[in-house]
Amino acid sequence: MAEPEEKDALDALEIEAKEFNKDAEIDRILHAFRLDAYAVLDLQPGCPPSDIKARYRQRSLLIHPDKTSNPSAPDAFDRLKKAQTTLMDEALRTTLDEAIADARTVLMRERKLGRDSEEVKGAEFKKAWREKTKLVLVDNEARRRRQMKAQMQEEGRTKRAEDEELEKRKRKRDWDGKWEASREDRVGSWRDFVGGKGKGGTENGAEEGKSREAKVVEKVPGKKKKKLKMLG
Questions:
Q1: What tens digit of pLDDT does each residue of 76-128 get?
Q2: 85 with 41: CB under 8 angstroms?
Q3: 48 vs 60: CA distance, rounded Å
Q4: Are 54 and 42 in contact (CB under 8 A)?
Q5: Element (H, E) at 229
Q6: Rounded CA gap, 15 and 38, in Å?
Q7: What are the C-alpha distances in Å from 34 to residues 76, 106, 205?
Q8: What is the DSSP letter of 161?
Q9: Contacts of 40 by beta carbon, 8 Å cutoff, 6+ apart
Q10: Distance CA 123, CA 101 (A)
Q11: How far is Cα 187 from Cα 10, in angstroms, rounded to an integer?
C-alpha cells in the first residue's frame, strides 16, 4: 500500500497529466483548419454519425471551460461545437464532402494519377490532399462571401426602392388629405367669386340702361320750324 506522501504525489502527477492532455487538445483544436470540421474533430471524412457524436462527447468533456483553467478553452470549445454541428447537418456535411472530393480530383489531375495509382494510397498523397482541401475550402468560402455581399447589396437596393415607393405614397396621401381638407375653403371662395360677379353685372346693367335712355331722349324730335314758301 502506497504511503500518503507517495499517493499525494501520484495524484498530483495524474492531475498534471490530465491538464497537459487538456492543454494539448485545446492547442490542437485552435491550430486545426477551422473550415474543415473533420480536422477540428480529428476525424476522417466519410465517418458515420455515431463516430462524430462519440468524438465530440469525449473531446468536449476534456476541454470544457468548467473543467480547465486554460484561458483558450472557451474558444476551443466553441470551435469543437461548431464542427460537430456542421457534420451533423446533412446539407452542410454534403457541401464539405464535395469540397474534399473536389480537392482530391484536382490533386490527381495535377499529378496525372489514376484512381488505381499506388501513390493515391500513400501517406504523402493524403497529406497533400489535406493541404489541397484547405485551398478549395478557402476558395469556396471567398466565393460564398462575395455572393452574400452581392445579395446584401441587391437587398439594399430593393429596400431603398421600397422605401422610396412608400415615401412617395405617403406624400401622395398627405397631398390628397390636404386637398380634401381645403375643399370647403375652395368652394366658399368660388361662391364668393360667383356672387361678386353677379352683383357687378346688375350695376353695369343699370348704368347701361341709363345711358340708353339718355340717347333716346336726345333723339326725340321737338317742334319743327315751318319753312316759308317763296312767292312769285
A1: 999 999 999 999 999 999 999 999 999 999 999 999 999 888 899 899 999 99
A2: no
A3: 19
A4: no
A5: none
A6: 29
A7: 10, 21, 100
A8: H
A9: 29, 32, 33, 34, 79, 80, 82, 83
A10: 17
A11: 104
Q: Map 41-85 to HEC letters.
A: HCCCCCCCHHHHHHHHHHHHHHHCHHHCCCCCHHHHHHHHHHHHH
Determine the length of the chain.
Answer: 232
Phi, then psi, of 121 in degrees rounded to 5 = -90, -5
At what angle are helices 49-63 and 73-88 packed, to 10 degrees? 170
Confirm if 39 and 33 have CB atoms less than 8 A apart: yes
- pTM, two decimals, is 0.61
Q: How far apart are CA 39 and CA 28, in angstroms?
A: 10
